[in-house]
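BUG: 3D viewer hangs when loading the predicted structure for this chain

Environment: internal workstation, default settings.
Expected: structure renders.
Actual: progress bar stalls at 90%.

Input used:
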Amino acid sequence: MQVKPYLRQFPDNEGYFGKFGGVYLPDDLARECKKIEEAYLKIANSHDFIMKLRDIRKHFQGRPTPVYYAKRLTENVGGARIYLKREDLNHTGAHKLNHCMGEALLASYMGKKKLIAETGAGQHGVALATAAAYFGLECEIHMGEVDIKKEHPNVIRMKMLGANVIPVNKGQKTLKEAVDSAFEAYMGNTEECFYAIGSVVGPHPFPMMVRDFQSVVGFEAKEQFVQMTGILPDNLVACVGGGSNAMGIFSAFIEEPCELYGVEPLGRGTKLGEHAASLKYGVEGILHGFNSMVLLDENNEPAKVHSVASGLDYPSVGPEHAHLHSRGRLRLGGATDDEAIMAFYKLCRFEGIIPALESAHAVAFAMKLAKEKPYESILVNLSGRGDKDIDFIYENYPPEKFAL
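C-alpha cells produced before the viewer hung:
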C-alpha cells in the first residue's frame, strides 16, 4: 500500500495533526468553519483558482523571492554557511501576503464583503489591508494598544490602504487580546465577514489553509537552493510565534534529510511572563478554538508573555508545530531579546539588510548554530523587513550600545 506524502496525510479529516488541532468552538462558529473548509477544498485545486493565485504572486507580489548567500555575515560569525530566503522582498515587506491574497481570493469566491483579522507586529494587518484593496473588500484590523505604539509605521500603512484599525485595550493589550477582539467582532456578522487568521493557528481549516498558501516559500527555496549549490540545505531555521513563516519554509523539507529548527522568543528570562516559548515551556491546552501547546498560569489561564518582537508574543503555537515537535521532527531553537537585537544590527552592518525583529530571532539562532556545525549550510527564512521596527529599536536599543 502506497503511503501518502506528509502534506496529504496531515491534517486528517477532523483537522488534527496527531492529537493537536481540531475545532473547539460553539456550534454556530464551528458551522462557519465547516463552510470555509468546504469552499477551500472545492476550489483549492481548481485550475482557475491556481492560475489566479499564480498570476497574483508573479505580477503583484513579485514572487519568487530570492535565496541569498550571506557571505559577510558568514565570515563574521565563522562556521556554517548562512543563506537567507528573502521574504522581506515580498510585496508589503513580509511573508504574510502569501496567505492573505489566498484568503481574500477565497472570501471573494464565498461572496463575503469584509475581511476581519488580528495583527501583532502589523505585517498581517498590512498584508490583509493590501489584499482587501486589491479585491475591493472592506477590512477591519484589531491591534493591541501596546503594539500600535511599537509598530506605528504599519498602523499608518493599514489606514492608508483603507483598513479600519480597532485599538484593543484589554489585558496586556497585545496579540492574544487582539485575537479575542477580532473573534468577537466576527461572531457578530459571520454572513458578510471572513475571518482571515494571520498564522497557522486557530480552528481547522485555518492551520491547513495558511500552511498551504505559505508552502510557496519552501518549494521556491528548495528549487533555488539546489540550483545554487547542487544539494539540499543541511539545516532550515525559522522563527516561531504562531508559526506561519516556519511552516511555509518547512513544508517542502519535512520528508527530506534536513534538520528543521523552530526558533522561539526567549525574551528576557525563564519565568512566566518573561518569554513566549510555548513549545519549550508550555503544556497541552485549548486556546482560540484549537488544541496545542499553551503557556498557562497558576489559574490555568493563558499566561502573560513577552517578546521584543510583537509578532511573536503569543501564548500558544500552531498545532502542526506541536505535532512535528512531539514526533521529534522539529527541533527547538531560541533567541533572547538581546540576541535578536544583536542579530538585527549584524545583518544591517554586514549585509545591508534591515530585518524584522521576528526574523532577527531566526538569524540570531542561526549565528549560534553556525558555530556548532562549521561544515554545514543553514537556510534561514528571513520572513520580513524591519521598517516597522526601526523607530522602536533606535529609541530603546541605540546602535552605539552594541559593539559589532
